[in-house]
Amino acid sequence: MKALFTISLALLLLANVSWSQSIQESHKKQYDEIELFDMYHKDWALVKKDKHVGFIDYNGKEVVPTIYYEIELFDMYHDGWAMVKKGKHVGFIDYKGKEVVPLEYQNADDAIKWYNTRKNK
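Request: output the structure for the sequence above.
Response:
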C-alpha cells in the first residue's frame, strides 16, 4: 500500500512538472518564470515578470495580474486569503484572485483589523 502511494505521488509530481514545462514553453515570452501548479492554489501557478508576481491557471490565463512584489501562501493569515505585498504595503487576495483588503496597510494584522471592522458594521 505504501509503495502504491509513493508511486502515485511520484506520477502526480511528474505530471505537474510536465504540465508546467508545457505551459512554460507556450508562455515563456510572456513571463520570466513559471512555478509549479498547485503550490499556492489548486490549478494555479505563480508567475514572475519584471520582478513582479501573479498567477495563471492551467489554460495559461492570468487570474491574478503580475503587479505584486510578493504573494504569500493562502490560508496563513486568514482562511481563503493570501497576503500580497507591493512596495511597503500589504493587502489580501481571495481564491478568486480578487483583492479583498486593499494594499494600504503596513502589516497583515492592520489589514485584517480593517477587514473585521468593516465586516462588523
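The mean pLDDT is 84.
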